[in-house]
Amino acid sequence: MTLKSRLGGLFTASHPTFFGRQRVLRLLLNTVKVAAFYHLFTDYFFVIKPTFGPSMLPTINVRDDWVLLSKLYARGRGIQVGDIVSFYHPMFPGVGAVKRVVGMPGDFVLRDTPGSASDLMIQVPKGHCWVLGDDMGSSRDSRIFGPVPLALVKGRALAKVPFPYLWQWQKFERGLRPVDP
């Protein structure tokens, strides 16, 4: 017995059904439209992503914090010193990282941790930025893997979204501030 004979002509124009052919096609078309809009919005405008790890303490918690990323800053467009950015990790392909920008092309930055034996300053090369975690003791950042190409920047973090309290957003301020001893 064929599938057509089992269905008994359910999808023919003469048989009234709840799921008519036009209704199914309209539903399919609307689903494709919503999926395309979601894809464009999250790839080119804004997306909320989870974070994990202690490198950005106390700004971003070890877990259960999400960040609102603006993709309008992708590839380093409009990034400034002090911005928190998301980028593709240069040491681990396919893995993302979130760090603070402390140097832009042409800036001189301290290569090692402040207070260490070395006071070597280096200049950030053209097309790169220097990133550090807020908790330098537990951060793998530019001190380890060097300057990050601006082409690896996925976006700028605009706010912290503490999960599951999605209504309590905390906006990130631009710029650097001195650390209280």
Question: Which properties best describe this structure?
Answer:
alpha+beta; 10 strands; 3 helices; 8-stranded antiparallel β-sheet; single chain; two-stranded antiparallel ribbon; 181 residues
Quick synopsis:
18% of the residues lie in helices and 27% in strands. The protein contains three helices and ten strands; from the N terminus they run ααβββββββαβββ.
Strand tally is 10
Whole-number radius of gyration? 24 Å
Helix content: 10-25%
What do the pLDDT scores average to? Answer: 88
Shape: elongated
Proportion of strand residues:
25-35%
Distance between the termini: 81 Å
Could you list the spans in which at least 5 consecutive residues all have pLDDT below 50? Answer: none
Figure out the total of helices.
3
Q: What is the string of SSEs from the N terminus onward?
A: HHEEEEEEEHEEE
Category by helix and strand content: alpha+beta
Largest sheet: 8 strands, antiparallel
Describe this structure in words.
This protein is an alpha+beta fold and 181 residues long. Helices cover 18% and strands 27% of the residues. It is built from three helices and ten strands; from the N terminus they run ααβββββββαβββ. The chain has helices at 3-7, 21-44, 142-145, and strands at residues 46-50, 65-70, 84-88, 96-103, 108-110, 121-123, 128-132, 148-149, 153-162, 170-171. The strands form two sheets. Strands 1, 2, 3, 4, 7, 8, 9 and 10 form an eight-stranded antiparallel sheet that branches. Strand 9 and strand 10 (170-171) form a beta hairpin. The protein is elongated, with a radius of gyration of 24 Å. The model has no long low-confidence stretch (mean pLDDT 88).
